Amino acid sequence: MQFTSFMFAVFFPIVVLIFYILPKKARQIWLLLASYYFYMGWNPKYALLILTSTVITYLCGLGIDMFSAEKKRGRKAVLLAGILSNLGILVFFKYFYFLHDSVAAVVSIFGIHMKASSLDIVLPVGISFYTFQALGYVIDVYRQNVKAEKNFIRYALFVSFFPQLVAGPIERSGHLLSQIEEISRKPSWNFDKVTRGLLMMLWGYFMKLVIADRAAALVDTVFPIYYMFDGVALVLTMIMFGFQLYCDFASYSAIAIGASSVLGIELCPNFAAPFFSSSVSEFWRRWHISLSSWLRDYVYIPLGGNRCSKVRKYFNIMVTFLTSGIWHGASWHFVLWGALQGIFIVIGDMLRPAKTKFHTVFHVKTQSVGFRCGQVCMTYLLFLVSFTFFRAPTISDGVYYLERIVRHFDIWALLDGSVYTLGLDAKEMLVFVIAVAILWIVDWYYQKKKAYFDTLVKNQCLAVQYLIVLTLFVMILVFGVYGEGYNASEFIYFQF
């Protein structure tokens, strides 16, 4: 079931209404049933998979808790069993074809030809997200950061909570499980949380339907046949893809956070105005925050983090971002994309002493608006270049895409009207520009106040609040793009 579907428009109000009508003790069970119904909207068989992962990690949590802190071998054995079994499920369903084809390519060098796989494996929606969430719980129990959850209903709801189930944010057990436990005890209604949640949902739908899906119309026109377009069209497509990816993914997170807030549950933030970042490392503290922090706590720090030599630190960074790359997709172009992020951060760290000395010698005003804008523009340029490999079907396609920009760039194409033949006409492009301007204002507000859209609206007088809500609502109804044939378009991160 998609957030942008008519089915969800019926499903969500019913879930909320019954949630607040039911006795408090029955609400956890109701949300669990609703979550499984939500997930089974894609494929009922998926429920067996998420249930399997839930049962394994639930038992592993109890198993780890059975051993005292002194019995490290027993605790480690249960931990490894939980990690390997869940990663085994993930690898089979997400990486089987990738591993099979990679091995086949290697052995073919020696004249050995492997048969094509006869298995028909369908990637379950959201498997990467709920697998990492469940694994984080087991590791937290092992580290004694949280106690093992003995109530299976509560734990199953933690793994399958429908607002953030298929595309995050990836929640931590210490944050979400405690709130789930409070469902049966806390007050039944919080007007402020409900209104803030509805505002976040409105903002999410605006980003998805007005910006992301409008940008997709151009991106999906050019990218499949990019070799037929000149450099200007390809640069414009890169920029549009950046907005599409950001608004598509951030919109899902905003809707998820808003829907949870309506139910009285607070999810962790997942985006923090990432296009205002002044470095790649800062960008990854603002983009997909829940995954970045998960990789930091469960991959980077266990490897040694930065509490080691420079060489080892850079190795840890590269392993972390290669993990991020392969997490996003079973293809070598995702691996390269992840490697590029690590390389950018390593080079930035290596050059930091030289840059500091240069700024001191030449009296560069690093706090000036101009300098800051230059850093933001350079970070955004690196984002566009690296995410070209994220979108391209293969590494060679990504390389050739960038090569065509350099070889076939004609600035006059901006003036001959050809940009309006790429999927968006002049009127649609104007709507897109206006919508992006609204996005920029909201992100700028976060940059200044460290507060999201709901706070921006709440801080206005009542008349302005109504005006903002009405404007976005009308724009969604009038200018919302629902995909081909006016069907709800899928969120990009469902494939991960």
Secondary-structure blueprint:
Blueprint: H1 6-21, H2 27-40, H3 46-66, H4 72-108, H5 127-142, H6 152-160, H7 173-182, H8 191-222, H9 231-262, H10 280-286, H11 289-303, H12 310-328, H13 332-361, H14 369-391, H15 395-407, H16 426-449, H17 453-458, H18 462-479
Write a structural description.
- With 496 residues, the protein is mainly alpha-helical.
- The chain has 18 helices and no strands.
- Helix 8 packs parallel to helix 18 and helix 9 crosses helix 14.
- The mean pLDDT is 90.
Briefly characterize the structure:
The chain is mostly helical and 496 residues long. The chain is 69% helix and 0% strand.
Q: What labels would you give this structure?
A:
single chain; 496 residues; 69% helix; globular
Distance between termini? 16 Å
Specify the structural class. mainly alpha
Mean pLDDT: 90
Fraction of residues in β-strands:
under 5%
Low-confidence parts lasting 5 or more residues at pLDDT below 50?
none
- The level of helicity is 55-70%
- Figure out the total of helices: 18
Main beta sheet: strand number and arrangement? none
Q: Return Rg in Å.
A: 24 Å
Number of strands: 0
Pattern of helices and strands: HHHHHHHHHHHHHHHHHH
Name the overall outline: globular
